[in-house]
Every structure is written in structure tokens, then in C-alpha cells.
Amino acid sequence: MFEACEIILLSTSSASPQPENRTEIMVKTFRVPATKDKHTAYKDTLKKIEEGKRRRFGHEALLLSPVYRIAISTAASLILILLLHLFLFQQHTFHSGDQSNTFRLPDQSRVILSSNSTVRYSGYFWNRKIRLEGEAYFEVNKGKKFIVKTNEGSISVLGTRFWISEDIHQLTVSCFEGKVSFDNKQVHQLIAAGTCARFEDNKLVSRTETTSLYPESAFFSKQFTAENIETVLAALEDFFQVSIQLEANKTYLFSGKLETANLESALKIISRSLNLDYSFRSDYVIYLTEK
Length: 291
Prior knowledge:
Layout: E1 5-9, H1 22-25, E2 28-32, H2 38-64, H3 66-88, E3 91-95, E4 101-104, E5 110-113, E6 118-122, E7 129-133, E8 135-139, E9 146-149, E10 154-157, E11 161-167, E12 170-177, E13 179-183, E14 188-192, E15 195-200, E16 203-209, E17 220-228, H4 229-240, E18 243-247, E19 253-260, H5 263-274, E20 276-282, E21 285-290
Parallel strand pairs: 7-9, 18-21
Antiparallel strand pairs: 1-2, 3-6, 4-5, 5-8, 6-7, 8-11, 9-10, 10-13, 11-12, 12-15, 13-14, 15-16, 17-19, 20-21
Keywords: Membrane, Transmembrane, Transmembrane helix
InterPro entries: FecR, FecR_C, Ferrdict_sens_TM
GO molecular function, one term: sigma factor antagonist activity
């Protein structure tokens, strides 16, 4: 009967191990069962090493094969296309509910959405196209053509202020600054500032002049009584969609009524009342400071 023993395989090279022959040159210690002689155990050990090398080389050959590389490249491209599709074609929706809602579009155009109305636009907003259901007031920044789509047709502008009200088979467009164009399959109408046009069943039914500079929905109207100025400024920020930074060492209380569609008019009233100064750092960032 054979005694259990150990077989030790030693490297005969003094060079640093290379990744491809590391298995052969590293020291291996095997416990030989008592039922095997040393010669048989040694042959079994070499056989296992060779099998391991063949498996590793086969895996590396698969990684280097043209078919494998093409498959990986195709899968990566499909994932990229899917991510771009999700980003570009994702729909952004604003719904006002029971109260009006003010927000800015990606191009910084301002929208006052009347109650129970909806605006939708896609992630690729560089085409400046939106969908309106209901009623909204727009202050459009200058740029490429801005298009509002409704069930009755499309309103196109380059940079202006206008108001749209859509109902079943009816559409009213009022322009307060610049010009807008209304188009559908049967009608093409240019609407200049100071003009209100009403369409019904794809026909122009009335065209009137308006002396108002803003629609009613564009007015900020609130009464304050000994209100902390920070609360007043927060209300203005929300309505006009700007950032107002207050730099003051004491608490200011404001009393009065603010009723205006122009942010600077509101800032003038507050500044004169509380002896403060205001300055625009950009179109959407204002600083309010002590004199």
C-alpha cells in the first residue's frame, strides 16, 4: 500500500512570471491520496494544468474574434440609440389644475397657464414646438420660429407676447407685442400687436382691436399687510419665474397691493416703500440691497 505524499512543481526559470504561463511556473502543492503512486499523481496534475490552459485560451480567442467584437459594438450602439430616444422623445407636461401656473420653457420663454389647461413639449425643444390645450399667455424670447399647436391650428411667432384661448371648435388669439401667424388647412392669418382674432370651425369670425397691453391672467395681483419682505419676494419669484436675492441686515415688512404684469414695476414699488435698491444681474437674476 502506498503512503500519502506531496508532489511539488517548481519553476526552473528565474524570469518574472508572464500572464500566459503563470500557471506553469507558480509553485503548486498537491496532496497525493494513499491509493496513487507519485508517478500517476504527477501525470494527473500536468493533465489538469493543460486543461486549464486550453479553457483560458479558448475564452481569449472568443473575446478576440471579429464576430464577438461586432456583437459587442452593435449592442452598445443599440443601447445608445435607446437612451437618445428616451431623452429626445420624452414628453414634458404642465397641467395647471384649479389654479393658474407660471413656468419657463427650456428657451426661457415664460408661460402663464390658465386653470384647467395643459402644455406639452418634447425633450428636443430646439425646434420650439409645444402643444396647448386650454388657455395660456406667452412671453416668447427671440430666436427661431416658436410654434404653438392647438386642435384648431398652429400659431407661429419669432419673439413676442400673445394670448391663446382654445375651446371646442373655437380659438381666440390676442397679440400684445410683435406679430403672430395663425395657420391651418383652410386659414392663414397674420395678427399684429393690438389685435384680437377669433376663429370658429376653421373660419375667421371676428377681428377686433385691443388697447390692453396684457391679458388679465398676466397680472400679479396680491394685497400684503405687514408681510415679511422675503415672503413677498418669493411670491414674485414664483409668478415671474426669476430669482430675487435679498441682501439686508434687518427684517423688512411690506404693506400694500401689487397689481402689475411687469416685474420691474413691482420692484420699484417695493424699493421706494422700504428704501431699498434693486439691480438686474441678468434677465432672470435680481439683487435687492439696502441703500
